[in-house]
Amino acid sequence: MAYKITDSCLKCGICIDECPEGAIVVDEQVTDFDGLNLYTTRIDPDKCTDCGVCVSHEWWCPAKAIVKA
Predict the structure, then answer these.
(1) What is the chain's pLDDT, residue by residue, as a tens digit (69 residues)?
(2) Among 17, 43, 50, 57, which residue's beta carbon has the most beta carbons within 10 A?
(3) By the 8 A CB rule, do 67 and 11 touch?
């Protein structure tokens, strides 16, 4: 696996549906006091094909929390 999600993750969940391999998975979904859904995510090494799509679009991760491992 060439990528990881760092601690700077905002837990917004944008990346979850955008991964073409479905490698970004939710470990926990929490609804905070404002009604926002927050997602604790990780990259599943068994599904990740190192395609690089997760880091190819700047809008994809507003926190730039997905980086090369």
Answers:
(1) 689 999 999 999 999 988 999 999 999 999 988 899 999 999 999 999 998 888 887 667 889 999 988
(2) 43
(3) no
CB neighbour list of residue 29: distance below 8 Å, 6 or more residues apart: 37, 38, 39, 40
Residues 6+ apart with CB under 8 A from 41: 5, 9, 11, 13, 15, 16, 24, 25, 26, 27
Contact 6, 65 (CB under 8 A): yes
Residue 52 domain boundaries:
3-68
Q: What is the CATH number of the domain that holds 50?
A: 3.30.70.20
How many structural domains is the chain composed of?
1
